[in-house]
Structures are given as C-alpha cells and as structure tokens.
Automatic annotation (TrEMBL):
Binding-site positions, substrate: 155-158, 177
Annotated binding of Mg(2+), by residue: 178
Molecular function (Gene Ontology), one example: metal ion binding
Cofactor(s) recorded in Swiss-Prot or TrEMBL: Mg(2+)
Gene3D superfamilies recorded: Ribonuclease E inhibitor RraA/RraA-like (3.50.30.40)
Protein name stated in the entry: RraA family protein
One Pfam family this sequence matches: RraA-like
C-alpha cells in the first residue's frame, strides 16, 4: 500500500513539475500564492487591490508601514539603497514579477520555446515579455541578480513602453541604461541598483509572476509596492487595507502628539507612553475638529478606533 502511495506521489510530482515548465505562472498558482486575498482579481490571478488604497498609501511613511508589517510577522519586505530615476516622486502599484539568471543555452532555448507556446512576442529579447503583460497600475519588479555591465534590463525605449502600459515604472534588483533618457519620460520612475551604458547580454529571463527575491525582500506577484527616495516596501495584498488605515491613524496620532507637545499641554513621557483616558478623550475631540480632510472616512476611523486600545 505504501509503495502504491509513493508511486502515486511521484506521478503527482511529475505532473506538477511538467505544469511548472512555463514562463508565466498560471492564474491558479497565483491564486494559491495569494489565497488570503478575498477580493477582486485580474484574469492572470493577481489580486486587484482598489486604486483608492494605492493613492492613500502614497503619503504614508515607510516606518509606519514597516511597523504594521513587522507586527504581522512580515520581517522581510523592505529593501533600501537604491538609485532613483526621479527621487522626489512616490510610486505605488500592483507588482508583476520577473526573474533573470546568467545565460545557459539549453535552459534559454527551453524558455524561448515555452514562450512561443504561450504566445509571447518572438521579435526582440525576452526582456520585453514582462512589459507586454503590464496593465494600468502595475509596477514591473525584477530580480536580475544585481548585474551591472551587460545586465541593463531596459533603456528609454522600453521605459516608454512600460509607462504606456502601466503609467508607473520599475523596481530592478539590477541595472538599466540611459538614465538620462528614462528621467525625461514624464510620469515614469525607477528604483535600480545602478546604471551602465552597455546593452543586455549573457543573461536570460526565466519566469514571470513567480516569487522572487529583491535584496532583503521576498516578493510575490500581486504584492502592493510603496517606493520613495528612502526605500521600497512590498505589502501582501490582503494586508494592504489594514496597513493603510493603521498607518493613517498612527500619523494622525503623531500629528496630535506633536501639536500638544509644542503647546506644552503634556509632557513627553505622557505622549510616548500609553495614553491616559484624558489624553484619549482629547485626541477624539481633536479628530472631531480636525482642520483638514481626514485621509479615511469617518466610519473607517470609528470602526478602527472601536477595536483598538490606542
């Protein structure tokens, strides 16, 4: 009986290995990777996190977002030390991943053959394949093993194509060419590890929308990215709403605390420790008379505060 089960197991393993020999991950596999997301999805299986959450994410600090993720057990979602094409711009979006490796002819031939079966473009290099599938709001994230010379994934031509598809940009654990040309593409941005005037050679695309490593971070297709001049954070799609509302409330708490400290209403220790009931009441009153527009709806705020001891 055990031998039969073992044989059946090998058959299943062989089946799944055969199914895995594709360039692009299947929608079923992406759904399995992101199974905790319960909302709308793209046809390729990636979570479709709403546009308004992407916008609300933009002004939030990396520290506040990182704090929420770490409290949820996600310790490996940040990478820093980037060269940024347009450092004063912030980018958020939905991740499309790509993996590159040093060229191995037999493997490269298999990838090209599989790409042909999948209907991917046969003109130009395989580094155009991830670009062809980008949708509005997507961010192209690639691991090209930090290769500099001869590892440039894009120049300004492909940069223009990326922006036309996604209205976003790229995050490459590797290099690009023509930073000057890329910086002139209005709206485009990029986080890269370096630039080089050479063109891409002796490397190959191995997968699209599979899990990849970007420095310290593990990245899945459909993750939500927050990128600014201080670094990049990858947020699991199912946590995005909680990350946004928690970070927004944290920043409101900080704003309130800073104001009250400037007014010398409370001592530093009172603001930095667990708040008394009087401070909590003062904070709620301050929120009710907030001079600007709150980043969340009143219902979202009330629901959040109801369940937390702030």
């Amino acid at each position: 009986m055990n031998k039969k089960l073992l044989f059946f197991g090998f058959l299943l393993l062989g089946y799944y290995c055969t199914k895995a020999q594709t360039v692009g991950a299947s929608p079923e596999y992406i759904r399995a990777l992101t199974s905790q997301w319960k909302g709308e999805r793209f046809p390729d299986g990636r979570p479709r996190v709403p546009d308004d959450l992407l916008e609300r994410l933009k002004p939030l600090s990396l520290e506040d977002v990182w704090s929420v993720l770490r409290n949820k057990g996600y310790q490996n979602q940040f990478e820093g030390n980037w060269q940024v094409v347009n450092p004063d711009s912030v980018m958020t979006g939905r991740v499309v991943t790509a993996q590159y490796m040093p060229l191995r002819p037999d493997f490269s031939d298999l990838i090209k053959e599989e790409g042909k079966k999948e209907g991917r473009g046969q003109h130009g290099g395989t580094n155009s394949w991830p670009i062809d599938i980008l949708a509005d709001g997507d961010v192209y994230v690639a691991d090209s093993y930090e290769k500099m010379a001869d590892g440039t994934l894009i120049g300004d031509n492909l940069g223009n194509s990326i922006y036309a598809h996604s209205h976003r940009g790229v995050i490459f654990y590797g290099s690009v060419r023509d930073m000057a040309g890329l910086s002139e593409i209005k709206g485009f941005n990029g986080w890269v590890k370096g630039s080089d005037p050479s063109y891409i050679q002796q490397m190959m695309l191995t997968s699209i929308n599979q899990p990849i490593r970007v420095g310290r971070a593990t990245v899945l297709p459909g993750d939500i990215v927050l990128a600014n001049k201080w670094g990049v954070i990858f947020i699991p799609a199912y946590l995005c709403q909680e990350v946004v509302i928690t970070s927004e409330v944290t920043e409101l708490r900080d704003e309130f605390g800073h104001q009250r400290l400037r007014e010398k209403k409370y001592l530093t220790g009172q603001i930095d420790s667990e708040w008394t009931e009087d401070i909590k009441k003062d904070f709620l009153d301050w929120l009710n008379h907030y001079p600007g527009k709150l980043p969340m709806t009143k219902k979202e705020l009330d629901d959040y505060l109801k369940e937390r001891n702030y």
